[in-house]
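**User:**
My hope is that you can spare some time for a protein that puzzles me. This is the protein in question:
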Amino acid sequence: MTHTLHRATLKLQTPLGTPLTGDTLFGQMCWALRAARGDAELVRRIAGYTAGEPWLVVSDGFPAGYLPKPSLPQHFEPLIDPAARKAAKRKRWIPVDKFALGEQTHSLAALLGSAVDDSVAFEKMAPVAATQMHNTLNRLTGTTGEGEFAPYTTQTIFHAPGQRMDLYLGLDDARATPDEVGALLTAIGASGFGRDASVGLGKFLLETIVPFACTPPPGADGHWTLAPCVPRGGHFDRQRSYWRVLTRFGRHGNLHALGGNPFKTPILLAGTGAVLTPSGPFTPRVFVGTGIGGDGRLSKVEPGTVHQGYAPALPLAMGVAS
């Protein structure tokens, strides 16, 4: 089984009700495949998914030309004036050209020192999360009320018109082609991604999908993840691996979202930007992590449900252990 890494660039057309997170995107792409090719084809694709054989691994969406800053302790950062540390924490994007294709010779400190904040990475306008009020009317009384008719709020993420976002895709060459995956993204972009797609949120255009080549930097010894993932126990050096813990309270989409029990079993993930150092010799990989689910472990409504516990990964030179 051979995987290759590709980069897709999306052009946002409307605000987002749900952030462009890799595991959520993967789930919606599975639904899109099911709608286009049927249940049998989806079952064929996810065969071996929890045994290290994913047909597709999807990253989060990042501002075009940027990668998420690795989640590392403060002592890895270049020395800065203590008064500037608060501003430095807002610099969460690494320019791709600082991780140049085949030319990454920067030290880790220099790579971290190249980080920029939202105002630079998003160019025209940093994303804004706005709270919106919603009412559900009781058709018998014509008013709101309590319980299911109580007013509620949601958050909508606004970007500059036409904001471009990059996705990184790990494709199993035997089971997924760039054209096919591009068609799935196009279908999702037309109907809308995530929450409130039915009222116009989450629409985008697919502009390009191209191979993404990456030569390991000198001394590469760690994996830099581009989506939430589940690190495989015993495969990584816990003294030299770093991540932020993320709890995912998942719920079904599509038809199951309208059922009596749309919720999945909560899971813990290593957040995007984790740095995972192998406990043995380092070998560059297109993805790291573990696929989870199946056999009713995540969902009683759909026992075959799986969750993307994998993440596309880039090689990183950690240097001497600190």
Q: What stands out?
A: The chain is about 15% helix and 25% strand.
